[in-house]
Amino acid sequence: MSILKVRDISGVSAKRVSQWEELMRKFSEAHKEQCKTVSLDIPRVQRSVKQFPTGSQYEGTWDVLGMSGYGVYKFPNEVIYEGEFDDGLFHGEGELKYPSGEILRGKWKKGALIDKTLIFADGLEYDDIDWSYCRMPDRRFTIEHNNGLQPAGQSYMTPEQPSREVPHGYYDTGDGFYDPKTKVIYSVHDLTAIIRSPSVREQRWIIDNCRSNPIPKLGPRKDLYEEWVEPMLHLPSNLSRQDSMPFMAPSKSTPSFGQDYDSVYEFGSCYWRKTSEGAWNKRFINFEPTVD
Q: In which element (H, E) is residue 19 found?
C-alpha cells in the first residue's frame, strides 16, 4: 500500500500517519503514569583539585556535565574566580580576585557577566555612572578620606604608601609601568615582562594624568586663580548699560554660582553675576605665566 499523499473526495490533500507515530501514540496512552515528566536533579559531588592542560585548576563540586555548584577556579595568570557554576560555566553570583588586590564582584548567566561591581585594593568601590573620585573639587585619595590630609611637604603622591619609584621614562599606571616608546605596560617587578597593551585612548589618558619620571615642571593653574570683589547694588558707571558693553553677554560656560543668582554675564576675564535681590558681584581671574 502506498504511503504517499492521497486525495479525498473534496480534493484536499492529506498525509498518511506513519506507523511509528501510531505505535508511539498507543505506547504513551498505555504508559501514562510511567511517562509523566519529572524534574531531573543531577547529583553533585565534591572532587579533589582538577588540573587542566591550560594551566588552570578547579576545586569544587561537579555533576555528570562538568563543574557545577560552588567552586574556585584559578587561571594561569593567578586570577581567581570563586562562586557558582553550572554546566562548566560561571553561572550565578561570584567574584574575580586579581593579584593586584582588585575584586570584580558580579552575577553571571551562562558565562556572561550581567551585573558587576569593581572594588579596588584599598576598598574603594567604583561607580561607572558619574564617578567623582579624585576629581575637582575633591581630589583626595581613599587613604586621605580615611586618615585625613597630611601637612605640607608630606602629601600623599599615590593611594598606596609608600609611593614606589617610577623608572626613568615611564608612567605609573597603578598596575604597572607604561613605556610611551613601546606603548605597553610592564610589570612593576620585571620591566621585561609585558602585562598588557592599553588602547590609544588609555595611552593618552596615562600621559595626561599618571605620575611619571622625570616629573614635568608645574606652573600656576589658571583656572584656580580667581578673586571676588564685594557685592554692589549697581554696576560701575562704565558698565551700567549692556549696549555699551559689546563683549558682555549672558555666560553659557561659567560654573554654577548657585540658585540665588538670576543671571551671570561674562566680560573679558571677568564674570559678573546678579542676585535675586539685585546686587552685583564680580569675579576676575589672574592669568600668570607658566613657570619653565
A: helix 19-30
